Task: structure prediction
Amino acid sequence: MSDEASKKKGRTVVGVVTSDKGDKSITVQVDRMVQHPRFKKYVRRRSRYYAHDENNDAHVGDRVSITECRPLSKNKSFRLFEVIERSRLREVSAPDETKAEG
Result:
């Protein structure tokens, strides 16, 4: 088996961080659209995944990519792969912190 194939095992999903309260842990919500079998209407389904964030890079509202890995705890089986888009809420609240210090 080549090195590239061994690095790329497991699935990768994209979602939004809903919680970053745990140390080195985030909760990611992944939305998907599924067609109802009888009524043929598209319905939104949501899944929540717990992921490992080694450097505490991701914050609430960030759009992230997580990849499957070995179980890290009872609920965590994903790792943060990359932060795709930063939340605008974080950018707006940053100037308030500098005013409080001065």
